[in-house]
């Protein structure tokens, strides 16, 4: 129960009531209807998909928000394209990319759905005012790429910037005292070195080589170009005119925003538009304000009405305790207790016949990862558990993934980072610079280990290294138990190495290339479900308003507008840009756990492709 402490809390609740139109609560949070009713007309239908901003990957974050209200999500987009592929009433679909922010795994999953549409004989047209590398990669899978007249194509190769902060820390009187297990882990390098280690450079070079080769191959194959032609286009595109884009085969057509000429050539002039992301559920206004508050504050419950599959979302840094909707840097966290409860719920519900773990996590707490691993294995003793990797299942994320029966990834997903890192930031030099004197007291062995003034002593470092070695041995044992003979050489895939999805399939860390809908379909086939005869239930349940308010007013500094932390984060977000910030936030949130848990299984770097 949340106690309303002051007027500002009441105003917040009122704002939430005004901000969200009221829909009937979907207590079981199952998928929206596969095939909405379509009026019978003589003309064919052409689907319309408009994608803008970030594309969420998962269920609604809040219990009072239905899937329709949350707008475009990855699964809604993929399912909508699947509807076009299966329904003969459709002539095809137009996808309008309006400054959408995608990651490489999302591009691949939407591409698979587009390929399904085209295989069914429907046409796919993609339109944008400008294309960057990822949106262009998506557009290449369509029948026709259309560009706004005088629009831009911004194709480049891949570039990575890595910041090494040892010099900065030294200037301000700080020192990082970290240990790691895994020669290629690299997690401590940005804080303890001025340049990358040879091992970390080897890891990054291997990743970039594979990602770049796959991207160039995809563009070349889809556009009927040679690899050298693609690279020349990347070199020249910044100086090319829109007409030259046509001449060089970069795009197929130029058009105005009305798209009349382009759609007329592809679909004819007699068709009916169908907004594929339009709200399909009945709208029900509630006149009784108490009914509104009851809906907002009621606890979500799972009601599985027929045989189903469950999809459990593991998104964000892994921490002990409950999952949090928004962490310090705006990144949701994966709590061990929340995850274990969801896994037990799926195990104990007799109508749930199989589970897909959808993982997009850089890792985090070693202990929390172990607790979730145990719960996944317990579930797997009674029901099949398949794993679908989004952008990454790295370090603790892979710790969890290897507990599943089969692991699916996209070519650009990141997997592995099997290693351990931990330590502390030493503030003694900073204290001296600003005139702070710290008097320390301790009792018992190692009582002063995590003091903030001095580095670890030799006995402390030896004790911590032994603990890290034990966790690393446990990590590799978990991988060996989960992957079995599929990983023939543990040392070749461990030691902190990171792999793309393609590489992971080759070395046994993953089983197949495929998106979440492919995983669901294969799991349904294994448990004996026919298409359309089962539901997909999302777990854990989204948070009720009471839980969101409770989190909000427990966050340190929420009521102190002058503290400057939010302003600092806002500045960093503006400087990095939204795409980079969204990729970096989970890693930053995970690193913050070093204050609570000295041993982490965390992927240290965010890789952003734009």
Describe this entry's structure for a reader.
The protein is α/β, with parallel strands linked by helices. The chain has a domain of 204 residues: 2-enoyl-CoA Hydratase, Chain A, domain 1. The protein is 40% helix and 20% strand. The chain is built from 22 helices and 20 strands. The strands form five sheets. Strands 8, 11, 13, 14, 15, 17, 18 and 19 form an eight-stranded mixed sheet that branches. A six-stranded parallel sheet has the order 6-4-3-2-1-7, sandwiched between helices. Helix 14 links the parallel strand 13 and strand 14. Helix 3 runs parallel beside helix 4, helix 12 packs parallel to helix 13 and helix 21 crosses helix 22. The radius of gyration is 25 Å and the shape is globular. The two termini are 44 Å apart. The N terminus is likely disordered.
Key features of this structure:
single chain; 610 residues; alpha/beta; 2-enoyl-CoA Hydratase, Chain A, domain 1; eight-stranded mixed sheet; six-stranded parallel sheet; 22 helices; 20 strands; globular; disordered N terminus
Contiguous helical run count: 22
Class of secondary structure makeup: alpha/beta
CATH class of the domain at 29-160 and 204-275: Alpha Beta
Helix content: 40-55%
Overall average pLDDT: 82
Stretches with pLDDT under 50, minimum 5 residues? 1-34, 36-41, 280-287, 555-565
Q: How many beta-strand elements? A: 20
Radius of gyration from CA coordinates: 25 Å
